[in-house]
Specification:
The complex is a heterodimer. By secondary structure, chain A is of the alpha+beta class. Chain A has three domains: about 190 residues, no CATH class; about 260 residues, no CATH class; about 230 residues, no CATH class. Chain A contains 21 helices and ten strands. The mean pLDDT of chain A is about 85. Chain B is an alpha/beta fold. In chain B, the strands form two sheets. Chain B has a six-stranded mixed beta sheet with strand order 6-7-8-3-9-10, with helices on both faces. The chains are: A alpha+beta, B alpha/beta. At the A-B interface, helix 10, helix 19 and helix 20 of A face helix 2 and helix 3 of B.
């Protein structure tokens, strides 16, 4: 008998508080749905057959972790919000004669109902939408596989396991709250006045300082890879500062405004300012969360969207030519004589001649690592280790023929002449002098000194990095370099590196290019075996590799597509979080403000004044997180841009465009949501 | 000095339920007038129409018949948009549950109507200081409603009502939420502001109340029953105690359903 009473009371309580419970259940359903979808896709069998598909699963796995953490935080927030209000009603039941044990039973049923509803809704949505997500992902990756319309029961069980645990923990927290609470006090809790929040000026100041510091760090970071940790520090600082500013800063600002009598005692500001103090104290944390979520959404969508759209550019930067053959010599581990250079280097071009005679844009290049000391380049480890790091150089040798081809010029150099191409903005051109000298090689007269961007506008992007690049153009690089390496070996230092590459373009379909690439790779591999022969010491110190743009492109595509996919999914999750916070904020404010506006109407505030006051407050509260998110984004932008450059993304207009569009789309969406929740607010204060 | 301030003629108010099936007559035919400087109490049981009458006087509600004229102005002529300003400038309200805003200090609560009227801050101060001294709350101005007692809250509410120099104070059960000592203090205060200080004329007060104690301090008592003015009682030369007895007697007759003629 009692069982039915409790289930009935619980169901009734949920129905009456639909305005609280419905958004809660919807939000948890979306989280559960996302969890299911990501897990489902992670286990999708077709992933294995996609080129580059092996990177998808870890990415999705990362997404799952983010969703679990985020949903737990959000569920905890929403649960606290609801429980605080429900405890009041429980207080009434307590007065009417229900014991604590009965109340716990009542709460148990309420929680069971919402949990079941959330899980059922989430799994249903997940099973249905996972197919849509699968199609969408396949479209992004540009593949098409059949898939079954079956739900994955393993993933369902996994989802149930994770979220049942989460809900049980939340229920436990609710029970503790209920047990600790004094229901009689809760009944009256509404009536007692509240101290006007003083706002901690120190915290507000700290917020400004931390934010300024974080911005300063973010824009001063030079090298994105080395500075990743610092950027992370800056992100944490921004999060802390955002909370400080919204929770304390806003209250302090209101108090300063209040002190200005002329400003404060004005019909337009009077009510708005004095209520804002309370409002900010209560909802500052919520607004800060919205601001941070907005920033996260914007950064995620803008960058992943840019990468996806600009994928082709990225590939082109990393793979300027269709096929690139590399012969790599690493002398440190393997005592090799220069004979090998003589025999193995020409094999590269021979292979290209054999398997792709109709090629274009042949680009030949020798690359080594060196240091510059007193104007002389050294390639041996002894000198390199002694030299300070800023003297290290990437040294590239380019045949005159290749240079002319790249620049469409017709330079003629004598055999003892060279041209030096320097990295712009390094001041390198002033260090070199009139002759190029390398230890062990004959000096070459420098005929011309040019920035290396002359060979390719985009080339700077490929080489821009930590270590300065110098390019030397001369007629016969091999003839010049072999004595240099011989001299080094005679000195007993054989730790130098040499990378020889030959890259070219060809016409044809992706499959044809891949076929050529594979044939060359096969042929060179056989040559490599033959050249090294019975040398059992071989440990990879010399080998050929080939890279094909078509092959890389598809795996790039997969990577960026999955990033984009994940970016969209996580953005939806963050948006749902932001919407829920906004909704509950409006709901609680509507309840609190109702009595106030009734009084103001009685003492002579016109409907218009009430509406304009409400609008002012709503507008400020609406705009502030979005504006601060915009500022955060602006300061994060230089770093995001640098990070994208690491991904070989160099399309500045595209990233600016996607950022601005993301911001606009988010703003519009946020506006619609705010408008809808504002209706809830108006409805509450007018009731 | 007997200038007519407020006249209520044949006032009627009928409430219709949503579907128009049931009609409730809250006020049938109410007629009375108030002179400037009068202190009038309106008594009646719950459901007699007191609150409806007060809401109509406050322009929070509109009558279905009859009219209300305040200082020559027919309230039904005031457009919807002008009503709030009218309330703010011509009327002062004192409510049973104070209706102070918990987010404002006492000072800001009192100044609220002036702020809405766009009165400059300096002017607010010059009005606030003497008024708060008269009402004995000059030391509480920076406090918040939750920090002061019920009696102090009600005095702050009175200050808020008086600060606009209204034509009439409308008080709705002003002692309803106060203990007897605070009630006495408040009624004393009403008597004081009604008497005036010799410089300013006395403040007109219209008070709806249940309390015989409160009504016995007024200059005239109107009894309302079933939406009509049932009886009027003038103080004349009576003391508060005599007035108290008279009111009690009248209420007994009212409760037992007798008929009384108007006493002059």
């Amino acid at each position: 008998m009692k069982f039915f009473l409790f289930t009935h009371l619980a169901a009734d309580g949920i129905r009456r508080n639909g305005a609280l419970y419905l958004p809660y259940c919807l939000m948890s359903s979306v989280m559960i749905m996302m969890f299911y979808i990501l897990n489902y896709l992670q286990n999708a069998p077709w992933l294995d057959s996609v080129r580059g598909g092996n990177t998808i699963a870890p990415f999705l796995g990362f997404g799952v972790i983010v969703i679990v953490i985020f949903s737990v935080v959000l569920l905890f927030y929403a649960n606290t919000f609801i429980t605080r209000r429900r405890l009041r009603e429980m207080g009434l039941y307590h007065v009417l004669g229900m014991g604590k044990a009965d109340l716990i039973q009542l709460m148990l049923w309420e929680n069971v109902f919402t949990t079941v509803a959330s899980l059922a809704g989430g799994l249903l949505l997940g099973v249905v939408l996972s197919k849509a997500a699968e199609v969408f992902l396949q479209r992004l990756v540009k593949v098409s596989f059949d898939f079954s319309l079956m739900a994955d029961h393993k993933v369902i069980l996994q989802t149930l396991l994770v979220y049942v645990i989460v809900f049980i923990v939340l229920m436990g927290i609710n029970f503790i709250r209920l047990a600790k609470s004094n229901p009689m006090e809760l009944l009256k809790a509404d009536k007692t006045g509240d101290k006007p929040p003083r706002g901690n000026a120190l915290f507000a100041l700290l917020g400004i300082l931390i934010l300024a510091g974080a911005y300063a760090i973010a824009i001063s970071l030079k090298n994105p890879v080395d500075a990743a940790l610092w950027f992370f520090v800056a992100v944490i600082m921004v999060i802390i500062a955002t909370y400080l500013l919204f929770v304390s800063g806003s209250v302090v600002l209101c108090r300063i405004l209040k002190k200005n009598k002329k400003y404060y005692y004005h019909p337009k500001h009077f009510v708005a300012v004095s209520q804002m103090v309370y409002r900010m104290k209560r909802n500052g944390a919520g607004l800060a969360s919205i601001c941070i979520l907005a920033t996260m959404v914007l950064v995620t969508t803008a960058s992943t969207c840019s990468l996806y759209i600009g994928e082709e550019d990225c590939v082109r930067v990393q793979y300027p030519q269709e096929i690139k053959i590399t012969a790599r010599y690493n002398y440190s581990d393997y005592n090799i004589d220069t004979e090998l250079l003589h025999t193995s280097l020409p094999k590269v071009r021979e292979a290209a001649d054999t398997y792709c005679p109709e090629r274009t844009n042949g680009f030949e290049q020798f690359q080594t690592y060196s240091c510059i000391t007193d104007g002389v380049f050294y390639i041996d480890s002894t000198h390199i280790e002694q030299a300070p790091k800023e003297d290290d150089r990437y040294l590239y040798f380019i045949p005159t023929e290749t240079y002319n081809q790249m620049t469409e010029e017709n330079r003629v150099l004598a055999d003892d002449e060279c041209m030096v191409l320097y990295q712009p903005n390094t001041g390198e051109e002033r260090r070199i002098g009139t002759a190029f000298t390398i230890s062990g090689g004959k000096p070459m007269q420098i005929k011309d000194t040019l920035p290396y961007t002359v060979i390719d506008k985009n080339i700077k992007n490929q080489y821009d990095g930590f270590i300065t690049v110098i390019m030397v153009v001369m007629n016969d690089v091999m003839d010049y370099l072999i004595p240099v390496y011989e001299a080094n070996m005679q000195n007993g230092d054989n730790s130098s590196v040499l990378l020889y590459s030959y890259a070219f373009d060809m016409e044809g379909t992706d499959d044809e290019k891949l076929a050529v690439n594979n044939r060359i790779a096969q042929a060179l591999y056989e040559k490599q075996e033959m050249l090294l022969g019975q040398d059992t010491d071989y440990d990879g110190s010399f080998y050929y590799t080939t890279r094909c743009r078509a092959e890389a492109a598809s795996s790039f595509y997969t990577d960026y597509a999955i990033l984009f996919f994940l970016g969209i999914l996580l953005s939806i999750v963050f948006l749902v979080g932001a919407v829920l916070i906004i909704y509950y904020k409006q709901y609680s404010e509507g309840l609190e403000d109702r009595a106030r506006f009734t009084i103001m109407q009685k003492v002579g505030m016109t409907d218009k004044e009430i509406r304009s006051t409400v609008n002012t407050q709503v507008f400020i509260v609406f705009l502030s997180p979005l504006l601060l998110a915009g500022v955060h984004l602006t300061f994060a932008f230089p770093f995001i841009w640098k990070i994208l450059q690491v991904f070989n993304f160099f399309n500045l207009p595209l990233i600016i465009g996607t950022t601005v569009i993301s911001f606009a789309v988010y703003g519009v969406f946020y506006g619609i949501v705010y408008n809808m929740t504002a209706k809830v607010y108006y409805h509450l204060i007018r009731r | 000095m007997n200038h007519l301030l407020l006249s209520v003629t044949n006032l009627g108010k009928t409430y219709t339920t949503h579907l128009g099936l049931n009609k409730v007559e809250a006020l049938k035919n109410v007629t009375f007038s108030v002179d400037e400087g009068e202190y009038v109490a309106i008594m009646g049981e719950s459901g007699s129409g007191k609150t409806t009458l007060l809401n109509i006087l406050a322009t929070l509600d509109t009558p279905t018949s009859g009219k209300v004229v305040l200082r020559g102005q027919d309230l039904s002529d005031i457009p919807e948009s002008g009503r709030a300003a009218f309330r703010r400038e011509s009327l002062g309200f004192v409510f049973q549950d104070f209706n102070l805003l918990d987010t404002f200090s006492i000072r800001d609560n009192i100044c609220l109507p002036l702020v809405f009227s766009g009165v400059p801050y300096r002017e607010m101060e010059t009005r606030l200081i003497p008024l708060s001294k008269t009402l004995g709350i000059d030391t509480l101005l920076e406090k918040y409603p939750y920090e002061v007692s019920g009696g102090q809250k009600q005095r702050a509410a009175v200050a808020r009502a008086l600060i606009t120099n209204p034509d009439v104070i409308l008080a709705d059960e002003p002692t309803g939420a106060l203990d007897s000592r605070a009630s006495d203090e408040l009624l004393g205060l009403f008597a004081k502001i009604n008497a005036g200080d010799g410089v300013k004329p006395g403040q007109t007060i219209l008070m709806v109340t249940h309390s015989v104690q409160a009504a016995s301090r007024a200059g005239r008592v109107l009894f309302i029953r079933d939406g009509e003015v049932f009886h009027q009682l003038y103080r004349g030369d009576m003391t508060d105690a005599q007035m108290f007895t008279k009111i009690s007697d009248t209420l007994t007759i009212l409760a037992t359903g007798g008929h009384t003629k108007e006493e002059v």
